[in-house]
Amino acid sequence: MGSARPWQIILFVLAVLALAGGLFLSCRGGVDLADSILMVDVNSGDRFRFDTSGKRGVIIPAKHPETGERTLLPIYEMDGQWVIAERYRAGLGNDEFPAAAVDLETYAVSISDKPVRDGRPK
Description:
The protein is about 20% helix and about 25% strand. By secondary structure, the protein is an alpha+beta fold. The protein has 2 domains: about 1-30; about 35-120, no CATH class. Strands 1, 2, 3, 4, 5 and 6 form a 6-stranded mixed sheet that branches. A hairpin with a 5-residue loop joins strand 1 (about 35-40) and strand 2. The termini are far apart.
């Protein structure tokens, strides 16, 4: 490196630091992902929990385990109400996706009295 210019040395040092930082972040565990997702049938208000641990994923809208129809959307609790996740609100209330259990102004869901069930078909 006898003929290296100062800006080249600085660039090389920055590249080594970036590589070291990347290795540190990847070795310390990475991002924590949820091991399950809670979904609701937009027509009945029934809730289902899908296991997403390991390599299992969920296609959204998910299939109802009993009817086979794709009526399950992710929900979360906000101010004491269960609400459809914002990303999945488009298309609710039309002929193909009537969403009888969803208030289309607030996207709050009328939850049924049934307990949360496993969303994977038996």
